[in-house]
Write a structure and sequence with these properties.
The chain is of the alpha/beta class. It has helices spanning about 40-45, 70-85, 95-100, 130-140, 145-155, 160-165, 170-175, 180-185, 185-190, 215-225, 245, 250-260; strands at about 1-5, 10-20, 20-25, 50, 85-90, 110-115, 205-210, 230-235. It has one domain: Rossmann fold (3-Layer(aba) Sandwich). About 40% of the residues lie in helices and about 20% in strands.
Amino acid sequence: MEEITSADGAKIGWQTTGSGPPLLLVHGTTADHTRWAGISPQFEQHFTVHAMDRRGRGASTDDSQVYDILREAEDVSAVVEAIGGPVDILGHSYGAVCSLEAALLTDGVRKMVLYEPPLPTDIAMYPPGAPDRMQAMIDDGELEAALELFFREVVRMPDHELVEYRELPVWKQRIRLAPTIPRELTIDRSYSFDSAKFADLRVPVLLMLGGDSPPIFQRAVETANGAVPSSRVVLLPGQQHIAMDTDPALFVGEVLDFLLE
C-alpha cells in the first residue's frame, strides 16, 4: 500500500496495480479498496489502477473528532496530487460525492465517472429514524442487522439482489465496516450541494444511473447533471446501485467506453 498525508493529518492509503495512465477508484459506503477486486483486472489492462481506502477504514486513518465530508474531498485530492495528473476517477455512491467535490480542489483530474452520487434533494434519503435505529443496532453489536437495514431501507435493494449480495466475498467485510454507515447516511444533514460551485468545472463527467434505481438516485443524478457543464448520463438497463456486481460486463464496458474515447 502507498500512503499520503491529507490536509488534516489523516493518513490515506491506496493499492496500485496494472500499467498505463492512472485511474483512481473511490469506493462508497460500507466498503474499502477491496470492493473493486472483481473488476479491477479489466481496468488494469488499460490503466495503472489506484484503489484507495477512504478515511477510517483499511489503510487510512481518521482521528478527527467531528466528521466532515469535505475532509474526504481533500483526501481524494491529496491522492490525485500524489499520483500526479492527469488522473481519471471512478467514484461510486458516497465516494462519487467525495470525488466530485475533490475536482474543485485539484487541476489533476482528466475525466470522472460518478455512479449514483447520493446528493441531497427534495426526496427523503431514508425512512424517519433510520440512522438512529441503525446506530442503536451498531451499539448493541448487531452489525449485520444494521447493514441489512441500510441495504433494504436506504439503498432499497430488492430481496433477490440482497440474497445474491450476501453470498459475495465482500459481505463479511461490509459487516465489519457497518459502524461507518451512520455518519455517511446523514449526508442530507451535514452536506449541502452548491451547484453554483461547479459552473466553471470543465472536467468531462459521466454520470451512471441504474435503469431500475429508486427515484432518490434518479433525482440526484439529474441534480448533478444540471450542475456540471461537461456531464452526460448513461443508463444501465435493469440495474440498480451495484451494477459492478450484478452486471460487471455492462458496467466495465460503459466506464471504458467513456475513459478511452
